[in-house]
Design a protein that fits this description.
There is one protein chain. By secondary structure, this protein is mainly α. It has a two-stranded antiparallel sheet with strand order 1-2. The chain has one domain: ABC transporter involved in vitamin B12 uptake, BtuC, CATH 1.10.3470. Helices cover 69% and strands 2% of the residues. The longest helix is centred in the middle third of the chain and has 30 residues. The protein has 16 helices and two strands.
């Protein structure tokens, strides 16, 4: 009968094939949806590729979209490595943006640009850490499910930034804005430098440096070694003398700091003010897709983030087609990619046993072969 058999040895090509197949299946589902809504999927996908990768400015905008995704992807990757499921990068990004914009407005023009930018980055990271602190402590000492706490806090953070700009006369709101409230623009000294005439900004460099730093931490430090032990087995970590509770808090704080940096990068490099409309576009949730498709590999995060950044960047280009393809097709593709990426993970650990196959799987262990 049709079933699954655990692999005793996972071939190297599986780790590449599974994410690729997940993306292709998501594109196939998107194509079916487009056909049923009266659109030509080949035309739509061609326009998306041209808009995101076939021109200098299109690719530059793709890199802008990829910048926060690299950081939120790293935030998810760090926590997932130790089987801590931080689903709150979205909210941590919001609070990072609040703190980064707040410190920029507070400092004003009193410091030179480089100092202002450093303060913004530090404030953004601090905001992300602060917002995940309670879920981290609750997980470490009370065994509270971090999925629930971090996910619920996303809504709290969204309501908070909306209240700061649309529901109050806060420090972050532009007092000159009348019927259309908006955030107060940060000083020119806090602007992240941009590359030429494009919108690619310093945040991309920071994101790439974060990738290198996380790779180094995971592979070349005692902290990263402890993370590996904790991710493999909490009991083994305790036996090896790893301070499990402190490690849980430290890993989640690192994850929150990376998400907070994404918020600071958005404020300093893109919106240049606290703008809920610019922030609330699911960058934290998309980081989960980035981490899943990269198979928790820091280097792969860059490529996956650029791919998803291209999908997001192409959404507006679809409006130029005569049949007016809805922008939401990009959001649907993101969701489909996530579902297939998570669902296809079973094929990494298991192989399909077809009804007509004889005997055990070729790579089955002796115990499984005997059971078969």
């Amino acid at each position: 009968m049709l079933g699954l058999e655990r692999r005793s040895d996972v071939p190297a090509w599986i780790y590449v094939a599974v994410p690729v197949i997940a993306v292709l299946l998501a594109l196939a589902v998107g194509a079916v949806f487009l056909v049923f809504t009266g659109h030509d999927p080949l035309t739509v996908y061609r326009v998306m590729i041209q808009a995101s990768f076939a021109s200098t400015f299109g690719f530059a905008d793709t890199l802008v979209s990829a910048t926060p995704l690299i950081l939120t992807g790293l935030a998810a990757l760090v926590s997932f490595r130790v089987k801590l499921w931080n689903i709150g990068a979205e909210g941590q990004l919001y609070i990072g943006a609040v703190c980064a914009s707040g410190i920029a407005l507070l400092i004003g023009e009193s410091l030179p640009g480089w100092a202002n930018i450093l303060m913004m980055l530090a404030a953004g990271a601090f905001g992300g850490m602060l917002f995940i602190l309670i879920p981290a402590i609750a997980r470490a000492w009370l065994r509270t499910n971090e999925i629930i706490t971090t996910l619920l806090l996303n809504s709290v953070a969204l309501l908070f930034i909306n209240w700061l700009i649309f529901g109050s006369r806060s420090f972050w709101r532009d007092p000159a804005a009348g019927q259309f409230p908006q955030g107060l623009r940060i000083p020119d000294e806090a602007y992240f430098p941009r590359w030429g005439a494009t919108r690619v900004h310093l945040g991309l460099v920071i994101a790439l440096l974060a990738v290198v730093a996380i790779w180094f931490v995971l592979n070349r430090t005692r902290f990263g070694f402890r993370m590996k032990i904790l991710g493999d087995s909490e009991s083994a970590a305790r036996y090896a003398g790893v301070p499990v509770r402190l490690m849980v808090v430290a890993v989640l704080l690192l994850s929150g700091a990376l998400a907070g940096l994404a918020g600071a990068a958005d404020v300093g490099g893109f919106s240049r003010r606290l703008d809920p409309n610019s922030l609330a576009i699911g960058m934290g949730y998309a980081g989960i897709i980035v981490a899943a498709l990269s198979r928790l590999n820091p280097g792969s995060v860059i490529l996956v983030a650029i791919m998803l950044g291209g999908v997001r960047n192409a959404g507006t280009a679809l409006q130029s087609l005569p049949e007016r393809v809805p922008m939401e097709i990009a959001v649907m593709l993101e969701g489909a990619i996530l579902l297939f990426a998570l669902g296809s993970e079973v094929l990494v650990r298991y192989r399909i046993h077809w009804p007509w196959s004889k005997g055990p799987a070729l790579d089955a262990s002796p115990e499984e072969a005997e059971a078969t």
